[in-house]
Amino acid sequence: MQGSGNELSSKAEWRAWLSAERASISPEQRAEEALKLAEAASGLPGGVVCGYVPFGDEPGSLALLDALRARGSRVLLPVIAPVAGPLDWAEYTGPETLTPGRLRGILEPSGARLGVTAVEGADLVLLPALAVDHGGVRLGRGAGHYDRSLVFASPGTELVAVVRDSEFVNQLPVQSHDVPMTGALTPGQGLVRLPV
Predict the structure, then answer these.
(1) Most buried by CB count within 10 Å: which residue of 2, 55, 56, 143?
(2) CA-to-CA distance for 165 and 190, rounded, in angstroms?
(3) What is the pLDDT of residues 67-121, one digit of tens each?
């Protein structure tokens, strides 16, 4: 990334800067990072994992989800409701069961909906993020779906933001509704536990 982001003070400024930086990443770098993230799956905790299907320039790939399934984890993926609110969930049973979701570009599982409280049974939740800081503050895209969903997670559930190494930053702006992350997953460092 160009610059450090230290001069940014608002979430909107961070989102704009990080989005521009992501747009400059080559397809080759994206593929290499996705492979490393999939390889890191063996070191992740959890018999039940809530994940997500990366879209656009988000780091990761279906290979991470498939690696989790191959090691025996049950993988749940989000389903975005038609109205703003918490995410619904459905089990991921392979790439062939993914269908276009309500929002353009997002793939969702086609299986039975498990309800918004399905996240309660997860040992690990992998979250998309534009960045996460060393104190556990996660910067998402701003829709708030995950902040509204994580209230259903059980105490002790691992909450891990998936970011590029350059998106694991010193400090981000925080708001009272932000749910702190317990870890960051990056291509270069694997799982990093955070002091939350």
Answers:
(1) 55
(2) 9
(3) 999 999 999 999 987 777 899 999 999 999 999 988 777 899 999 999 999 999 9
| Gap between the terminal Cα atoms of the chain | 26
- Cβ neighbourhood burial of 72 (10 Å; 0-12, 13-18, 19+): exposed
pLDDT at 39 > cutoff 90: yes
Q: What angle do CA 9, 11, 14 make, to 5 degrees?
A: 75
- What backbone phi and psi angles, to 5 degrees, belong to 148? -75, -20
**Alpha carbon distance 183, 138 (integer Å):** 10
Judge whether residue 30 has pLDDT over 80.
Answer: yes
Tracing tokens 């010193």 back to the chain, one arrives at 170
Tell me which residue has tokens 């747009």: 23
Domains of the chain: 11-191 (3.40.50.10420)
User: Residue 34: beta bridge partners?
Assistant: none
Instruction: Please state, in angstroms and as integers, the Cα–Cα distance from residue 87 to each residue in 65, 90, 144, following that order.
Output: 18, 10, 10
Q: Could you tell me if 185 and 49 are in contact, meaning their C-beta atoms sit under 8 angstroms apart?
A: no
| Residue corresponding to tokens 């503050």 | 137
